[in-house]
Amino acid sequence: xxxxxxxxxxxxxxxxxxxxxxxxxxxxxxxxxxxxxxxxxxxxxxxxxxxxxxxxxxxxxxxxxxxxxxxxxxxxxxxxxxxxxxxxxxxxxxxxxxxxxxxxxxxxxxxxxxxxxxxxxxxxxxxxxxxxxxxxxxxxxxxxxxxxxxxxxxxxxxxxxxxxxxxxxxxxxxxxxxxxxxxxxxxxxxxxxxxxxxxxxxxxx
Length: 205
Prior knowledge:
Number of helices: 4
CATH superfamily of the largest domain: Rieske [2Fe-2S] iron-sulphur domain
Helix content: 25-40%
Mean pLDDT: 82
Oligomer: single chain
Low-confidence stretches: 19-44
Radius of gyration: 30 Å
Strand content: 15-25%
Largest sheet: 3 strands, antiparallel
Distance between the termini: 76 Å
């Protein structure tokens, strides 16, 4: 009789151990299920990006005269590698643009480190938001110099807004007597290396 009780007790203990192991396994799976979304919450969501999370741009291999576009805050950001001729042409357009020194609304349109003739950190590269300051159209790149339709004969290269004819030079400075009231906006940005830009932040944490 005693042996029968011991056998039953051992059977009960085995069943309990089995239940504990099973419960532990379920708990582990549940914990893993919680951990995955918790970890993934550290990566910027699309909503966070749209709200202004910084984006990186690789400019490796950009050729002189090339334009690349990346999206930041739902807006197109242009990166242009200017040719030496384009840079020299900025002296020519100084007298033709409405705000050559970027004095209009500087805190909103031009970061302090870009308040210069070429409106950039490195004169070779322009980083600008490709939206006209008139009614929000996106200008067309007209980087080739010389006479062209809807452009002056002494055109040095720049941008033409197809909506109402506003023109900008290759520093994003608006020409005089055009509908657009201001220069193209320069977003906060910084160089992480010679070939990598961070757009949306202008200082290291």
